[in-house]
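Subject: design request, 373 residues
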């Protein structure tokens, strides 16, 4: 169940493919089918097949996030260094809104997932495909934000996959949400009320590309004139302010590609992690006894995550705070690097969208890959 196509500028490309083609690289596009029938889009920038690197995006994001800066983006920088670069998309975003049997527009069951399924089903399918395609026995991985949570789920619930990860480079890692700051903390507190409202109106998908909300958001925020309103009052209030890295000229490119769709259940699961102050499986309430044989949902056993992990955190990150990353560091058994990025304003979104990441972040990533990958 795999398809491949190589696009050039003469084709009608997806956003990702067009951006990478503009940087001078061809792109492989694959459909990878998960054990539970979701069809995921996987992109490939060919390189040294003995050095595969898998990039996984964060919440309400897509593969686009790793190429928006074009020649100074992480994916293109890795390709320039000769790595075989693979960029995944979790179920439900704009590239992976398909299933073998379910229609996302009519079947509510399509949206019955959270980041647990990203780690338990999506990652194994993607990793197995990459390893089968390259002939390698293991790969290096780079996650951003929730793109790290899913590797923790994978390592804890399917521990055999720990051996297939040479090293996980965790950029602004999300696991514990005990110490969120300012607006990020307030949003987490509001999530239960927001999701209850969505349940009342029967809305299972959030941040869909075709909703009125998305069109209004992009109309208002999709130009440089709205930079003070949208960048400063939305992005910076939630993620941490850094106008030097997310500048007005580049900001409309972010709005054009972010956010993209996910499930209401994923938002609920994140709110549960924050409310319970523990990294645990989805809490089904009275159904827990039938599902887990326990009245509470079980914690993910981080002691089983034996893959090498390098944690890269930021002092100005209001979502992946230093306190929460430090707590994660204590829980994981094989942290090989812990770095606080040498840029005082480094926030939650700089790792993927920052103007100068190729100067003060990427050298650390390449060093980690060289030593541990």
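Subject: RE: design request

Done. Sequence follows.
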């Amino acid at each position: 169940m795999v398809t491949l196509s190589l696009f050039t500028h003469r084709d009608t490309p997806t956003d990702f493919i067009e951006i990478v083609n503009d940087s001078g690289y061809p792109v492989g596009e694959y459909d990878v089918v998960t054990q539970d029938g979701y069809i995921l889009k996987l992109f490939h920038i060919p390189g040294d097949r003995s050095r595969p690197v898998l990039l996984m995006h964060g919440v309400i994001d897509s593969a686009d996030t790793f190429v928006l800066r074009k020649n100074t983006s992480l994916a293109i920088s890795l390709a320039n260094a000769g790595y075989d670069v693979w960029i995944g998309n979790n179920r439900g975003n704009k590239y992976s809104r398909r299933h073998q049997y379910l229609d996302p527009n009519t079947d509510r069951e399509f949206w019955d997932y959270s980041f647990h399924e990203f780690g338990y089903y999506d990652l194994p399918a993607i990793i197995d495909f990459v390893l089968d395609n390259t002939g390698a026995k293991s790969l290096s991985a780079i996650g951003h934000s929730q793109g790290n949570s899913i590797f923790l789920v994978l390592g804890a619930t399917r521990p055999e996959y720990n051996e297939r990860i040479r090293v996980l480079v965790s950029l602004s890692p999300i696991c514990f949400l005990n110490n969120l700051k300012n607006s990020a903390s307030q949003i987490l507190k509001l999530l239960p009320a927001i999701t209850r409202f969505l349940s009342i109106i029967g809305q299972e998908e959030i941040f869909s590309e075709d909703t009125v909300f998305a069109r209004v958001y992009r109309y208002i925020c999709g130009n440089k004139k709205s930079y003070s309103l949208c960048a400063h009052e939305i992005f910076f209030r939630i993620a941490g302010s850094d106008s030097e890295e997310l500048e007005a000229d580049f900001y409309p490119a972010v709005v054009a590609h972010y956010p993209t769709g996910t499930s209401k259940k994923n938002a609920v699961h994140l709110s549960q992690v924050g409310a319970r102050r523990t990294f645990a499986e989805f809490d089904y309430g009275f159904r827990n006894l039938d599902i887990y044989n326990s009245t509470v949902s079980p914690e993910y056993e981080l002691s089983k995550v034996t893959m090498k992990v390098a944690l890269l955190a930021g002092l100005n990150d209001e979502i992946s705070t230093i306190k929460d990353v430090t707590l994660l560091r204590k829980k994981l058994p094989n942290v090989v690097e812990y770095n606080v990025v040498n840029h005082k304003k480094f926030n939650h979104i700089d790792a993927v969208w920052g103007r100068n990441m190729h100067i003060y972040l990427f050298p650390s990533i390449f060093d980690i890959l060289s030593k541990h990958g």
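The mean pLDDT is 93.
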